[in-house]
Design brief:
With 223 residues, the chain is an alpha+beta fold. The chain has 2 domains: 3-59, Alpha-Beta Plaits; 62-201, Aminopeptidase (3-Layer(aba) Sandwich), CATH 3.40.630.70. Helices cover 35% and strands 24% of the residues. It contains 7 helices and 11 strands. The radius of gyration is 17 Å and the shape is globular.
Length: 223
């Protein structure tokens, strides 16, 4: 049986996750609930017109910022300054491009209007980040995710030009490595992220990272 959430802002412990990666069902996408969820590596992923499904997969697929892989074919993009990158300038544009981006083997999108509004609100409060990739004055790629402490939880990306989102991701990873971020959470594995350095780590290892991050992050609010 699955754990069903009520109006209380609480989740079962991540150790209670099912082998499928599902931890709990329903609840809401309020700012308070989302912030609590991400502190423990819990995230919503569900189809529109269905109950909210909360996931916390074990093992976890992540990228350590200082281990991001850059293919030789990408070097020319950086050497020639093929694209320009900005941060948090057009969050809602980025998430809506992600919402409508075609996905191989998928019909429709999990980024529904509630997701758009909830994560846009997180960005306004400083808890979500968008990366915009530009070719001149044209937005050609980007990604967004949740940022708490020194962990970035990647959500989705899009490309309107070849390698635009990859350029943005690598640029972000390099910045996070420079700033001492612990990890980029990729949530679910795929070949694209694996090519960028994605790897599995144990669920306990991931939770240890989050615990350290959570203690440091919460301590900042008490100062």
């Amino acid at each position: 049986m699955y754990y069903y959430l009520d109006s209380q802002i609480a989740f079962p412990h991540p150790d209670a996750v099912k082998p499928s990666g599902i931890l709990a069902i329903s609840g809401d996408l309020s700012t308070e609930r989302l912030l609590l969820a991400y502190q423990y590596g819990i995230f919503p992923w569900y189809n529109d017109n269905e109950p909210i499904i909360w996931w916390c997969p074990r093992p976890r697929f992540v990228i350590f910022p200082d281990k991001v892989k850059v293919a030789k074919s990408m070097n020319a993009y950086f050497n020639q300054d093929k694209f320009q990158v900005t941060y948090n300038q057009h969050f809602e544009d980025v998430i809506r491009y992600c919402q409508h981006a075609p996905r191989h083997g998928q019909e429709g999108t999990w980024i529904n209007e509630n997701i758009v509004q909830s994560y846009t609100q997180l960005s306004k409060l400083g808890f979500a980040l968008s990366v915009e990739v530009w070719d001149g004055d044209q937005l050609v790629g980007g990604l967004y995710g949740v940022m708490l402490g020194k962990v970035f939880f990647g959500e989705s990306m899009f490309s309107l030009k070849s390698n635009a989102s990859k350029f943005g991701f690598i640029t972000l990873a390099r910045r996070l490595a420079y700033e001492g971020y612990y990890v980029i959470d990729c949530q679910q594995p795929n070949a694209y992220l694996q090519s960028l350095g994605g790897e599995f780590i144990g669920g306990d290892h991931f939770q240890d990272i989050l615990h350290k991050n959570r203690m440091e992050w919460l301590a900042e609010f008490k100062e």
